[in-house]
Amino acid sequence: MSDATPLRAFTPFQLGPVRLPNRLVKCGTNEGLSRGGLVTDALIDWHREMAAGGVGMTTLAYCSVSADGRTFRHQLWMHDAAMPGLARFADAIHAEGARAAIQLGHAGWFATPGVIGGAPIGPSRTFSPRGVCFSRAASAADLDRLERDFADAARRVVEAGFDGVEIHLGHGYLLAQFLCPYNNKRRDEYGGSIENRARFPRRVLRAVREAVAGRAAVWAKLNMEDGFAGGMTLAEGVDVARWIEADGSVDALQLTGGHTTRSPFFLMRGDLPLAGMIENEKSAVGRLGMRVFAKMLIRPYPFSEAFFRESALRLRAALRLPLMLLGGVNRLDTIEQALAEGFDLVAMGRALIRDPDLPLRMQRGELTASRCNHCNECVVEMERTGTRCVLRASAPPA
Ligand SMILES: Cc1cc2nc3c(=O)[nH]c(=O)nc-3n(C[C@H](O)[C@H](O)[C@H](O)COP(=O)(O)O)c2cc1C
Ligand code: SF4
Fold this sequence. Notes:
The protein is an alpha/beta fold. It has a single domain, classed as Aldolase class I (TIM Barrel, Alpha-Beta Barrel). It has 15 helices and 14 strands. The protein has helices at 41-52, 83-95, 113-116, 140-159, 174-179, 194-197, 199-212, 234-247, 274-280, 284-297, 309-318, 332-340, 350-354, 358-363, 377-382; strands at 13-15, 18-20, 24-26, 57-64, 99-105, 121-122, 127-128, 133-134, 136-137, 164-169, 217-223, 252-256, 323-325, 345-348. An 8-stranded parallel β-barrel has the order 3-4-5-10-11-12-13-14, surrounded by 6 helices. A two-stranded antiparallel ribbon has the order 1-2. Strands 6-9 form a two-stranded parallel sheet. α8 crosses α11 and α9 (274-280) packs antiparallel against α10. The protein is globular and about 55 Å long. The chain starts with 12 loop residues before the first strand and ends in a 16-residue tail after the last helix. The relative contact order is 0.14. Flavin mononucleotide binds at residues 27-30, 61-62, 103, 168, 170-171, 221, 256, 267-268, 326-329, 348-351, 378-379, 382, 387.
């Protein structure tokens, strides 16, 4: 890229009520640093490094809106004791000149029974291989309560000082389970046609919008497709995005795909870190099961740069809403191309875990791409020391 070419990546963007200093967003990647369900100093430092490295906004990953939406014992969830840490987090990010966002979600059917103290709740009664149990189908009263939990959590994070609220409508989490025919077998107005399956997620987004009341930006991390036969298709994903746009409930969409239990590497394309995944299994039975079945059950998806670009362009053509391109963005020329193609923001995960100062170094002309090799070992580290790039400690200073 010549010196004469102004980089769009480093121009500001108005996202709803929030002005972002540039177009680069650190997407939510579970940090594995929320001991006791709280924001820790280590978690703040992890994101402070991202903010100091030049992203316009960094996203604190998965905060469960209620106790029964958790998948890990040490996972952030919305309760009174979490509030002071959330406020410290937002202050620390602001002090670096970046914006603070948080992902709010609920794991629904694959919440962990041993952590939540009972059977998980989902759109339907479905066997969860992760929980080794059946989920309970949500009643009308459950849906009212879950909608309130999302809205209350959104209101509270804004009170804590966050600039952006991301609602998880992807990766097979509760709201994406409603969209997904594999999880949603309901026969009421929340199941069947895609219009019905989208009804509850749309209710939640409207409730969140109302609770936030223009004090922060709101967007959905939305699956465009689930990535397996029997999941939501791309054509359905386009319809869902159109309805959300028509509802006026969000300022943007962050576009993703895949399903945590059925197609986990559809969303994090690259190597399968099987040895580490087997070691991380808590029980001997789990480790044996993984050794025997993992290769059969977990389909690999080779990495390619900006692997969701083609599908995301379908949504770009169908919508006027601001869109964030996500998935395998590694290079400065990819970022510039995405912005030229009409995406408003570019979100990155592994590229920034590898090189947290990537934005600054791209702007200074020192790096044109992240040095991430998509080995996915950071996913294994998440459950050990906390999410970190295994190449960083040994990487020579570049
Ligand atoms: C270590 C790790 C943890 C992740 N945790 C989350 C998460 O908590 N919530 C989420 O929506 N996506 C999560 N993801 C997926 C990323 O947000 C992103 O969708 C995916 O990695 C593709 O983007 P990338 O190619 O830029 O990494 C995680 C990814 C990684 C590598
Ligand atoms: S461990 Fe490092 S190199 Fe491997 S995928 Fe994660 S960030 Fe990239």
